[in-house]
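Inputs:
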Amino acid sequence: MKHYTFGVDYYPEHWPRERWATDAKMMREMGIEVVRMGEFSWAMFEPGEGRFDFSVLDEAIGLLAAQGIDVILGTPTAAPPAWIIEKNPEIQPTDWRGQQRFFGGRHHDCQSNPVYREHIRRYVTAFAAHFADNPAVVGWQVDNELGNSHGDLCYCESCEKRFRVWLKEKYGTIGELNRAWGTAFWSQDYPDFEHIRSPKITAAWGQNPSHDLDWRRFSSDLVCEFHQLQADILRAAAPGKFITHNLMGFSSKPSYYALGEQLDFASHDQYPGGHFHARHDEYRADWHAAELDFIRAVKQKPFWIMEQQSGITGWEVLGRTPRPGQLGLWAMQCVAHGADTIVFFRWRSCPMGTEQYWHGLLPHSGQPGRYFREVEAFMKQYAPLLREMQGALPQAEVAILRSYEQEYAFQIQPHHPQHRYTQHLMTYYKALHRANVPVDFVGEHHDWSGYKVLIAPLQFLMTPSLSEKLHAFVENGGQLVLTWRTGVKDESNLCHTDMPVPCLVDDLCGLQLAEYDCLRDTDGAVLWEGERLACSQWCDVVEVTTARPVAVYGHEFYAGTPAITCNEFGAGKCWYVGTTLSDALADRMVAALLASADIAPLMDTPHGVEAVRRVKGGKTWLFLLNHNACPETVALPAGFTPWDGAPWAGQLEAHGTRVFVSVSE
Ligand code: GAL
Ligand code: ZN
């Protein structure tokens, strides 16, 4: 596959034809090598059933190709046109309250609806055939950000029907489903699969957690099936073109591990200054780093950014404008964490519709301003770096296990009102980030044997096979971190019985749960070698069998009992953390782990300066990223020299970045 450095998302259909050649020329001059188009304009490309008109795309692709720019085309199935909705209003989605959602935004579709799928089949078949032999079209994107605006959809009759088929395949008999869902409670027995519905709002609000978990698994599978329908058509028509998808970091509706199986490589949309987190004074670079590290886990290889922030963003309300240097800094953070290609969203701010204020590289006027000039300078400077570094990975020794299954289970039962699965993982990630330790995310299905440390919080649903895999990791010398709410449920979301918690891993942890406390109205404290550090949300009260207490609680009637323990097992160690760590406690925990596993951080940096590496062959690229609004002084580790040969005086500018290299013989 050809490698690209930089690209841009382009919507020629929003602009007069006379401008397109100028755009294409400006793109080439600034260093754009690839463009994504077409993912929202179904109404233009098929103005009536079976009447296709791809002339806008044909012409734009021709002008881009003349400048040497290649194209990725999106299928527009996130925005079915008005004439389809008029003809088949039933394809609009239904929410949790049984209320239909209507045309006028996007994602106004039900992904299981067979009538909608017929419309899709017709469009995608014609579209794929039309562009299959166009050499400038190098790849496809199916739909757009699957799961976005659809997170709480769809509960319609068509989806219920598809859910019943999914359940029949899974359980075989209704008796087995009734057992797995614990329907003896509150008279929920189903005499027949035909009686099962989507878990809509109930009179009591509460849902059956087993029903709900299967619904979330089904909804994930449905998104993958929806993607597969289109991917199959595209691949059959054009086997030489790649398929990718613009994923959204930690978004959880579909499992990206599962969706990733259909992709040639993963892509991600990165908006650090998006209207959701609009403050300059809030440090979010750790979250952005984590989402990038997670996207790298989808295919366990470098990825693309398909939408990289290009300016001030927002819909009805806006965030802060990116400060000088930030657009380059944010793009560089993606590169540092494994992006091989950066595509900026969007070429030019749109004059119409919902996203008039989601700014592009060019303002509405079309005249280059600060955003454009900053990004252009960044691209010119770093295109050679992206070329040489292609395929390089961070060589992490620490992994964090991120599981969609466990996340779904905690979405259903968070236990503590402030407890969120991803935030919990982030307490560990953030401490590693502060220490400049490279991290990989992994799933249950990945091979963990290359890591010295595996942090696997909240292994709530414990199956024999997961238990076996965790045991094997430690037996073979790994250091494993398990936490509260591990080994509580089976795969059906029913509580394990007749075994000590943490069920199936109590021997690995070297302890058993006596009871627990949910810290609803208070924070707690942990004493670690005399130091008092805050904890929150939850406290497991444990009785150790073979584990050694590392730190004890400093509050409540269980003060003095173990809060954190470590158990030698086989050639490795299993740590158990009975509470949610404060930042200070997480720093202490991470320091203990690194010392125990003999892992050295990349380097020491001031707060807000991130150090990241990528490695390929014998070469290491070290990235220093200053997320602070003031210059910072940094001491470089031995053996590194500036990648660009420019002098290094030990200082990073405000929002500045530098890259260094070291080559081992
Ligand atoms: C992304 C989406 C784009 C555009 C952008 C700005 O989520 O993929 O199509 O909508 O946000 O809102
Ligand atoms: Zn539906």
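The first strand starts at residue 6 and ends at 9. Flag for discussion at group meeting.
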